[in-house]
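Problem statement: downstream parser choked on a complex file, so we are re-checking the raw output for the FE2/S2 (inorganic) cluster run. The parser issue turned out to be on our end (a line-ending mismatch), but while we're here, posting the original submission so the record is complete.
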Amino acid sequence: MVAMREMTEPKDLFDPRHYTRVRRPFHSAETLPPWCYTSERWYEREKETIFKKYWNCLGHESRVPEPGSYFTQTFCDVPLIVVRGQDKVVRAFVNSCTHRGSIMMEGEGSCNHIKCPYHAWAFSLEGELVGTPMFEESEHFRKADHGLAQIRAEVWNGLIFINFDPSAQAMTDYLGDLTDRVAPWKAGEMVCVARREFPVKSNWKFYAENWSDGYHVPFVHQTTLNKKRVSKRDFHDPSVHIGNYLMHYTYFSGSRGTPEGQKKFPELDLPKELKIGTFFPYVHANAMVGFAIDLVSCTEIIPEGPGACRLFTSTMVPKATAELPEFQETLELYLKYSDIVRDEDVIAAERQQRGAESAYAKPGCFTPQDKLVHDYDLWILDRVIGNSGP
Ligand code: FES
């Protein structure tokens, strides 16, 4: 029996002394305190130290297929417009007019210019101010000084990533050896055949941690993923896996995309040693990518406050697979199954959230099978608190 005591968010929330127990070796370490999943102040700090410092995925580049294609999205309270330029480069801008701040574009679509509805100022697809109706340039006003605020954007393996930090590393440096590790999948040549959205009533970290947790699979996915025997898992080793990602590789035979006995996509042209399971890198800050033997998938987590987040899952396959006669029918099987599996994970994350919101919730512990969650939490701590220790 453990004595019950209330555990409220401390005033000195960011004092490293509150987190020394998380930094112990994993077998005696504690999980992040519950307030890390419920606190507004903690969440605000995460926005500044994680989401505005690291690369964030916003889905597949097919969201902007042609020059002039655009979509708008708010990320960490910043309204964004992502647009493909005439030069086919994908760019991201703050969706706020440089005249008097209006949102310029809504939704998604295609345009020749980014145009503000308030006084009709027009910006090129590259963000330069090109039109100011009834108002000329003068010694006081140069269009060149009023271009849109640009956010860094890169496409990696067909996926759009943005970064608010102008001094951040380029994606290839940021990802270290990951680009080479996943090169055999040729994901950049694949087509995106589905993008699906799922709201989750939990802190974004509960869902993210679950990605690296092999311990829950026999229980949460008892009647789904667990039907496929997993022979072993390789876990991330920072001396081997170099870059801003956290990986595990799960070994099983065949595809887990649909239940046994149901139709599958053809296997990819991969070396034999990559056809024995699925490679799962979590790319900091928000992308959970699965490199399977028959497809690549990416789920991006969009944080929406301490107690809510939103998932978007993109499914990518080779063009030749997408052109098969029975492709759509098979795809429906894959999507139906992945919805069931995801719902199982969502329910688990929402249950954790409800538990963490109790005044009596206290830090938990780790087992060898969820050791990677400890590594993940240390990564979070290093960003939010710093890694200098108390
Ligand atoms: Fe956009 Fe005036 S606020 S043109």
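For whoever reads this later: Residues 185-384 form a domain with the Naphthalene 1,2-dioxygenase Alpha Subunit; Chain A, domain 1 fold (CATH 3.90.380.10).
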